Amino acid sequence: MPIYRCNKCGFVSEDTQTPVNTPTACGRCGTPSTVYGTVFFVEELIKRLASVTRELKTLQAQPVAAPTAPAAPAAAPAASSFPTLDAAPKEAPHTALVQWFAQKNIQAAIDPSAADTSGFFDEAATALGDDYLLFADLLDRVCYSYRKSYTNVNLELAKLSQKDGQAITQFCRTLYEHTFFARYHYQKAEKIARLTLQMAPAIRQFFEGGWLEWYALVQALSASEQRSVPLSYARGVKVTFPNEDLHELDVLLQPQGQEPICIECKTGEFRRDIDKYVRLNKRLGLTKSRFILCCTDLNAEQAQGLSAMYDLSFVPLPMLKRHLHSMI
Questions:
Q1: Do the Cβ atoms of 265 and 236 come closer than 8 Å?
Q2: Quick one: which of 118, 99, 115, 119 has its CA closest to 107?
Q3: Which of 76, 83, 103, 156 has its CA 20 to 30 A from that of 313?
Q4: Known SUPFAM superfamilies for this protein (predicted)?
Q5: Domains in the chain with CATH codes
């Protein structure tokens, strides 16, 4: 059942008359408030609560210096001093990474919003990464349409099993509800899912490879939470070396008390870039185990062979979760 929450007075109410995603007058104060689907509304609350919880755990894990003088009784915090569900922290904890680069005389430009998990990129990426073989064709078709400047994608699902077909249609519907597609329609008789692409640059970048970066970040955050290890992290870090060479690093992680971990994510051809990454890792001064090349087109045997040949760690997508959990 649709629901709304007034941002002015905090009043929450169901609304069966107003269409979803349209404003209605608050039943208490009359302020226009947007009506949301209940599932969407609850998902947002859970996401923001999880973000607040992660931030709180990070703060609790930081060492506290002993006071040099008797501390005065702490004043009760103001009602607005603790993050609320309407004001979840948006800045990713990346201070340790910035300090590490500064020690090496490397400038690091970090955009906290690139790793903000309060949206739906991380959820969509998790679904794609956990069941990549099932959704690989969907990704290929969407990326091909973007490259050719097409606006629509038609997925013929008749040859798939009922289970796989239902999983794909449900996923496409979920992506549509979260605005990854501009339109979604399923022709049940023909078993064809018709998608209209979303032309927002952030969505296109997500489908064209950004999803793997989000997936790597989510797995790292999961490992950090499970092991109670504070983690500094960032996405899309632009680093400038002393000679003004500029590089962008896909995902950077730094568990407390450890050297950073760099993850370069490749959803397509990667062989021509191997030498570039070898030289980049040499300049960063990381051990090969901490410079990871995660590739969707690699199997375990290929990854093992390439890791033996180069000063890099090649990790297939299905092994990334376990690999990160072993390092954090």
A1: no
A2: 99
A3: 103
A4: Restriction endonuclease-like
A5: 3-58 (no CATH), 121-201 (3.30.1370), 208-327 (3.40.1350.10)
Distance separating alpha carbons of residues 249 and 238, to the nearest angstrom: 6
CB neighbour list of residue 165: distance below 8 Å, 6 or more residues apart: 157, 191
CB 129 within 8 A of CB 251: no
Tokens, residue 163:
């289970």
Tell whether the model's pLDDT for residue 77 goes beyond 80: no
Measure the CA–CA gap between 304 and 144, rounded to whole angstroms: 30
233 class by beta-carbon count within 10 Å (0-12 exposed, 13-18 middle, 19+ buried): buried
For the record, the structure tokens of 191 come out as 């078993």
Name every residue whose Cβ is closer than 8 Å to that of residue 117 and which is 6 or more positions away in sequence: 47, 50, 51, 217, 218, 221
Q: Average of pLDDT values for 180-200?
A: 96
Show the tokens assigned to 115: 């790793």
Output the pTM of the full model.
0.72
Between β-strands 291-295 and 313-316, what pairing exists: parallel, antiparallel or unpaired?
A: parallel
Q: What is the pLDDT of residues 137-189, one digit of tens each?
A: 999 999 999 999 999 999 999 999 999 999 999 999 999 999 999 999 999 99
